């Protein structure tokens, strides 16, 4: 007979596999969470599944189909509490009940108000043993954008920056291509592909002719993952408070986009990109209100790729959840442009960051850091 300690080890092992499956949906599940499921009987995996995209079967359904009759009396490991409501697909809790599983282990409860414990309660009411909290921290990290939207009404905001060793992002003239090497640029492509929205400002689009598209040949993924990443491109959002960017700019020619502005829409935009009027002051879009609007549209993760002024504005307002900074082994000199436009007069005013990862990326380094104030979110 399996002891409690042995069962805990088995639960962690099979949940780790479910999380591995969930990560297959890294680029495609928006606006849904990334979820994986494993069906285990007599210590053996008899069915697996993961959620690929909204509107298609959830992870539990795929796993139950693979398991067939072997699901009866088995244990289902799922990285997020099974849903209990009718959305685009039927409730997964009902599917598990109908399959006759004997036990369900969830990594965490679903904060979605439409679920919020009701899925596990539905299973318990049917006489199925339930448990939650196995590898919960890993499950939360996997879906930090979805969780922030559900718990706080805002998307997870990641700011990508690239700089030299002396903290500069571009020459005084504005020249910035390329500070970092091919491996770092490939990593940025993957950050874009996983985001719900890639956001930039008018200055970047005007100065660099930026398109901010996902380029398949630079992703550095296998054929299957590349196809998945390209099948669900992120929405490109341009903050242009005064509508300075002309409609023939490369950014608009690259595909669908959303323009966030705080002025009346000009006539030429009637047949151009979708525009979102957001409150603002002196041509500056209210960034917090913009994030609320994006969350209301189901946006989980925002990747900010902008110049020092807009990136600095997000930072000053405390709207950044994570900084991803690529550092190249070169100096750009004292006249080059700074990383952020964020004047600070005293050391006591310097915001504190917690560095969560430092990793070599080709010839460059990637530093991931979170504001200390956001560490518990």
From TrEMBL:
One of its GO terms (biological process) is riboflavin biosynthetic process. NADP(+) binds at residues 162, 178, 204, 208, 307-313. Binds 1 zinc ion. Pathway: Cofactor biosynthesis; riboflavin biosynthesis; 5-amino-6-(D-ribitylamino)uracil from GTP: step 2/4; Cofactor biosynthesis; riboflavin biosynthesis; 5-amino-6-(D-ribitylamino)uracil from GTP: step 3/4. PROSITE patterns: CYT_DCMP_DEAMINASES_1 (PS00903), CYT_DCMP_DEAMINASES_2 (PS51747). Residues 9-131 form the CMP/dCMP-type deaminase domain. Zn(2+) binds at residues 58, 83, 92. Keywords: Hydrolase, Metal-binding, Multifunctional enzyme, NADP, Oxidoreductase, Riboflavin biosynthesis, Zinc. Substrate binds at residues 176, 192, 212, 215, 305. Its cofactor is Zn(2+). It comes from the Bacteria. InterPro entries: APOBEC/CMP_deaminase_Zn-bd (IPR016192), CMP_dCMP_dom (IPR002125), Cytidine_deaminase-like (IPR016193), DHFR-like_dom_sf (IPR024072), Eubact_RibD (IPR004794), RibD_C (IPR011549), RibDG_C (IPR002734), Riboflavin_Biosynth_HTPR (IPR050765). It catalyses: 5-amino-6-(5-phospho-D-ribitylamino)uracil + NADP(+) = 5-amino-6-(5-phospho-D-ribosylamino)uracil + NADPH + H(+); 2,5-diamino-6-hydroxy-4-(5-phosphoribosylamino)-pyrimidine + H2O + H(+) = 5-amino-6-(5-phospho-D-ribosylamino)uracil + NH4(+). Its EC number is 3.5.4.26, 1.1.1.193. One of its GO terms (molecular function) is NADP binding. Gene3D superfamilies: Cytidine Deaminase, domain 2 (3.40.140.10), Dihydrofolate Reductase, subunit A (3.40.430.10). CDD domains: Riboflavin_deaminase-reductase. The active site is at 60 (proton donor). SUPFAM superfamilies: Cytidine deaminase-like, Dihydrofolate reductase-like. Converts 2,5-diamino-6-(ribosylamino)-4(3h)-pyrimidinone 5'-phosphate into 5-amino-6-(ribosylamino)-2,4(1h,3h)-pyrimidinedione 5'-phosphate. In the N-terminal section; belongs to the cytidine and deoxycytidylate deaminase family. In the C-terminal section; belongs to the HTP reductase family. This is Riboflavin biosynthesis protein RibD. The gene is ribD.
